[in-house]
Amino acid sequence: MSIRVVLVDPKHPGNIGAVARAMKNMGLTQLHLVRPKAFPDAEATARASGADDVLDSARVHEEFEDAIADCGLVIGTSARQRHLTFDLVEPRECAHLVAEAAQVGNVALVFGSEKYGLLNVELARCHRLVTIPTAGDYASLNLAMAVQVITYEILLATRPGAPVPPPPDVPFATGREMELLYEHFERVLEEVEFRDRTGGGQLMARIRRLFNRARLDQNEMNILRGILTAVQARRRVAGSKSQRGDG
Amino acid sequence: MSIRVVLVDPKHPGNIGAVARAMKNMGLTQLHLVRPKAFPDAEATARASGADDVLDSARVHEEFEDAIADCGLVIGTSARQRHLTFDLVEPRECAHLVAEAAQVGNVALVFGSEKYGLLNVELARCHRLVTIPTAGDYASLNLAMAVQVITYEILLATRPGAPVPPPPDVPFATGREMELLYEHFERVLEEVEFRDRTGGGQLMARIRRLFNRARLDQNEMNILRGILTAVQARRRVAGSKSQRGDG
Description:
homodimer; alpha/beta; Alpha/beta knot; 7-stranded parallel sheet; methyltransferase activity (chains A, B)
């Protein structure tokens, strides 16, 4: 199964071990750690309680982008109250999205640090945000608990006998491809001197949010890249014509 | 909500704290501890992380029976492989049973010790066994993780907007009432000199299993108690007649 768990800035090695154990119980083995404060660590191994193989094969990254570069679906996690601009899904719906996408590409489940959760720069790379429903006034799941609940739902949605969603016709664009698209988009906006009217310079963030929500497949991404290239070419032609006209 | 979590013989105070936190996140506050190895304990408080109120109001018992005496539904927990003689339910189905029963009585979710789980004598007092599905070869959820998954499903089944199962017409018999029934049953079996043909003296265990599975309501329990009393009365009459006949 091409489903990974990505922990961004985990502070407590014990939590990393508990996450490994939670994952393995639900049949997941690919753990990616972005800037772990301490790893490997005896406390992680102790809490893994037999899931040492998950820890041993864990991959450590300096940059979040590298952990999701080859993923066609990136699911972020969040406590409910924040990020009202996102479409929040619950773990059950999330699991169906994951089951569908994992048939044609890699999927990342992304968890932020124990204290702060995911930062905006990381959220901007997620296609969906999942939130675990909690009782109103106390929503403070331990990191490994959140991993357990979400991976439990994924096991239910992917185990033998579970209804299999039809695979998408075309693979989704990967994290890396989406970054290239956004870079391209930003270059074009500069070239056409589009003025950011969002106030706080939030233009690219809004564009990211829109396209992440839409979850582009490879064909759609190629079409958009083609349009951007055409805009650039047209502008260069226009630019050289205009120069000739001026001259 | 009249739903409690019962931990039997918990060995690690950290787990008690983590359980309190998991419960509170899902809106449950009634924690019952049977023979905790260490409680209260600083490690429990540290891991509770804001769910101190659940710890503070926890009730400690010497006997498991006392923790479930007033409960109309007692759900035990188990790793899948054991106890093949039980009808195992999964957390989702369990949650619907709990949502139904909690409308008319108290419900206990019972978790055994970290190392051994529930013992047979405790299992014999459960109406249902719930098991959390796991990936085949590694089924070793941490105690608090198991509480988290099961209480998560209960939150989904009981939160506003969830389909409410119709309440049962008659409350279920409580744990204490069932114990009185079994004691009565056993006395009658002795009085009628019924021979245990189960081999290992498993007769009462089988009878318990049967009636626990059936989940008696108060009326049914009263009927059975009435039948048992009638058998005793009849036998005494027959006995005295037979004595008269002999005399």
